[in-house]
Description:
By secondary structure, the protein is α/β, with parallel strands linked by helices.
Amino acid sequence: MHKILIVEDDETIRMGLKYFLENEHFEMMEASNIEEAKFKLDDQPDLILLDLGLPDGNGFDLFEMIRQHDHIPTIFLTAVDEEVSIVRGLDMGADDYVTKPFKARELLSRINNVLRRYHRKHDQNMIRIQNITIDLNGARVRKGDIDVMLTALEYRILLILGLHPGKVYSREQILADIWDTNEAFVNDNTLTVYIKRIREKIEDDPNNPKIILTVRGLGYKVSAHE
């Protein structure tokens, strides 16, 4: 269930959107001004519906603050006569805008389109191997919902293998890649130790690995299968 934050000082609009979108199976949060919205951001909404005219500032101020820390898909809610504001918002990186008064179904279509675009782009920066996720942007690895703490070399080795599931990498290829990027000597025996450590962190049973497989006489590969 996607979580949407409505930042809108008009209570009628805010409550109407909340009722409609909850019936469309979204989890809704609301704020009537910038200060309230800042607190609600801690709950990590998946999308923001942001009114430009707020009692304690304008929506651009909040949008700029958000963009300094995170990329949360944002749709501006604008008045019909705010063409200059619309252009400014899109130039700043807003994902879309809807002019008031708007039809609820049109807004729903815009919300779904923005979320689809965002998740497609997000997925391009993620590698998923069974229950392991590698976040290329944040250089983070997760096993299910739990962060996996890898050293820089462990992460690099997993990334080399994970970029092409099913492809066999010889030990020499892995060592050459590590050498090129790390200026630290890792010999053949050390690589064995690193593979063992990675398995201990990501495999359910390190002694019977299902993710990083040894291809006898050739090297290693990441399993392309569940």
